[in-house]
Amino acid sequence: MTEIFGVPIQSLMGQLMIGLVNGSFYAMLSLGLAVIFGMLNVVNFAHGAFYMMGAFFSWLLLKHFEVNYWWSLLLAPLGVATVGVVVEKTMLRWLYQLDHLYGLLLTFGLALIIEGFFRDQYGVSGQPYDLPDIFKGAFDLGFMMLPKYRAWVIVACLSVCLATWFVIERTRLGSYLRAGTENPKLVQAFGINVPLMVTLTYAFGVGLAGLAGVLAAPVYQVNPLMGSNIIIVVFAVVVIGGMGSILGAVVTGLALGLIEGLTKVFYPEASATVVFIIMAIVLLIRPAGLFGREK
Amino acid sequence: MDKRTKILYGALLLVALAAPFVGGYPIFLMKVLCFALFACAFNLLIGFTGLLSFGHAMFFGSAAYFCGHAAKAWGLTPELAVVLGTLGAAIMGYFVGWLAVRRQGIYFAMVTLALSQMVYFICVQAPFTGAEDGLQSVPRGKLLGLISLRDDTAMYYFVLAVFLFGFYVIYRTIHSPFGQVLKSIRENEPRALSLGYDVDKYKLLAFVISAGLAGMAGALKALSLGLASLTDVSWQMSGEVVLMTLLGGMGTILGPFLGAATIITMQNYLSGFGSWVTVIMGITFVVCVLAFRRGIVGEIAYRLKAK
To answer: Which residue from B109, B115, B284 is facing A104, i.e. has the nearest CB?
Structure first.
């Protein structure tokens, strides 16, 4: 069998694939964080909890209502987004005039509430989510086997990220959004309903997290702790990439997923810490982050 | 210090000294003191320098491991073990602070959180931490090699003495010219910078003091409860200390103490409710942020002033 640095190419490719899948989730989550931060100036600590909520919604839909995967892909993120609207309207709204730290603390509290609730209801052992039949099996690429579902996750995540980028950077709606990020008062003076836009931005951001959760449900088990496990890594990704640019968030997310996968092959002991080590290095060399602007 | 404050502090000290004899359960009292010191140390950053460190558990928990290991494997006396834990945490604080002060505001919180998660993963794998089991049955040893601390009441007075020392350090720091500079950084960083203060250095020193004292609290906790575990370095613990300080009153001197006492009491009574404790903590967070940002002590001080 072919080997690279003493590692069989099959297992190397396999780990890279897993890394890419993880990276896709990092990308989608940090994208949502960046969009929310841009508009609301809130670092959404509850992002991981909404991701977990998305996974749980799709699992519950399947279990109790026999709603299939494709409908879940639409309904679960909508459900999460609805929760997001309620959160924004009833709580976050009151904090925009205050120090950014309060937004972080509030969403941290929300994350605890959501996680505690699901842990009480469903325990900490994971619930399996069965793959739809169409995704069972793998493509044989000759040099490796590519599980169909993993391929789908990567394609889906990247398409969603690209679509988001396109909407924000290339459409009229996106231009309102970017203008609102720069100067909300002026945009409001032009007759655009900024508070509504803020609400929808938050709903969209957490909806993205919910969608990532639905996509993740069959890959990992559906587990109340899955959100808090991923959110801190995503924070590190955001520090590395900087929250200023959308493509930056996506690229950083994917790259870090890949690096994590590679570390698992060559030095597994460091696979949990490698992202944080990279973060420390980036802070030393480019304190504002790779794609960030110094304010 | 005016007369009223002096009387208040004197009364509190009397209560603390008499507590084990008027029905206070020493283990519980020690736990309160340890977390109170932890929260006070944290408050030095958030309340007096305006830095939100979301990873303070890394100092608390690591020092608990340092101290526990020193007492258990090396047989160090308790006071030396605590000193070792404090120094270890302060050195960690230097490196973490050195990295983290490069970013401001919200990024500072994320950087500290991420670095503390890294410390958490290192603790999961390190050979001397006992991974999931933690360091159990850490011996209390003999103070200065003479006085046995096995008795809970004796241990309580040792903890109280260390706590008072830590509290005094914080009090002096806040009321020193150095503390005034920290406050000016909290109020207006660019202005402090333009007045010629090397802001990053001040922040770093404050961070090291805070990390060291958080470590002192963790070391005390390891000795008094005989346990250092992964819970102590987890992000939940970092969140807990934020909540204690927020609830008691950020930027007040006694607030973190009161907040810690409240939260520990709450956890004590709610321990039978399992995951609901997390939910209740979350709700407390949300309520504090939305409606009670001054905290208990801050609110009292505000009402007194308004009169």
So the answer is: B109
Helical H segments across B175-198, by residue range: 177-187, 189-194
Cα gap B63→B85, rounded to integer Å? 4
CATH number given to A3-285? 1.10.3470
pLDDT in tens, A271-286: 888 888 888 888 888 8
Rounded to a whole number, what is the distance in Å from the CA of A11 to chain B's nearest CA? 24
B-chain CB neighbours of A106 within 8 Å are 285-286, 289-290
Work out the minimum CA distance from B98 to partner chain A, whole angstroms.
9
Q: Which two tokens mark B72? A: 């258990």
The answer to whether A272 contacts B121, with C-beta atoms less than 8 Å apart, is yes
Tokens of A241: 């990439």
Does residue A54 contact residue A77 with C-beta atoms inside 8 Å? yes
Distance from CA of B4 to the nearest CA of A (A): 33
The answer to whether the CB atoms of A235 and B115 lie below 8 A apart is no
Question: Is residue A6's pLDDT more than 80?
Answer: no
The low-confidence residues of chain B, meaning pLDDT below 70, are 1, 145, 307
**pLDDT for residue B71:** 85
Please give the distance of CA A115 from its chain centroid, rounded to a whole number: 17
| B230 contacts B123 by C-beta, under 8 angstroms | yes
Per DSSP, which regions of B156-299 are E strands?
A: none
For residues A75 and A195, what is the distance between their CA atoms, to the nearest angstrom? 25
Count Cβ atoms below 10 Å from residue A266 Cβ, excluding itself: 13
Instruction: Check CB contact under 8 Å for A116 and B109.
Output: no
Residue A293: CA atoms inside 13 Å, Cβ hemisphere, count? 5
Q: Please state the ipTM of this predicted complex.
A: 0.87
Any A CB within 8 A of B103 CB? yes
Structural domain boundaries in chain B: 24-233
Contact B212, B66 (CB under 8 A): no
Assign 3-class secondary structure to B52-87. Answer: CCCCCHHHHHHHHHHHHHHHHCCCCCHHHHHHHHHH
* 8 A C-beta contact, residue A180 and residue A192: yes
| Cβ contacts of A94 on chain B, cutoff 8 Å | 290
All residues of chain B having their beta carbon less than 8 Å from the beta carbon of residue A235 are: 110, 113-114
Whether A101 and B106 lie within 8 Å, measured CB to CB: yes
Residue located via tokens 């890959």: A219
CB-CB: which of A117, A273, A283 is closest to B121? A273
Whether the CA torsion A242, A248, A249, A254 is positive or negative: it is negative
Whole-number Å distance between alpha carbons of A261 and A12 = 9
Taking the CB of residue B86, how many other CB atoms lie within 10 A of it?
A: 26
Across the A/B interface, how many CB contacts are shorter than 8 Å? 118
Residues A144-159 have pLDDT tens digits of 778 888 889 999 999 9
Give the H/E segment covering residue B142.
strand B142-143
Mean pLDDT of chain A: 86
| Cα separation of the two ends of chain B | 21
**CA–CA distance, A58 with A71 (Å, rounded to integer):** 9
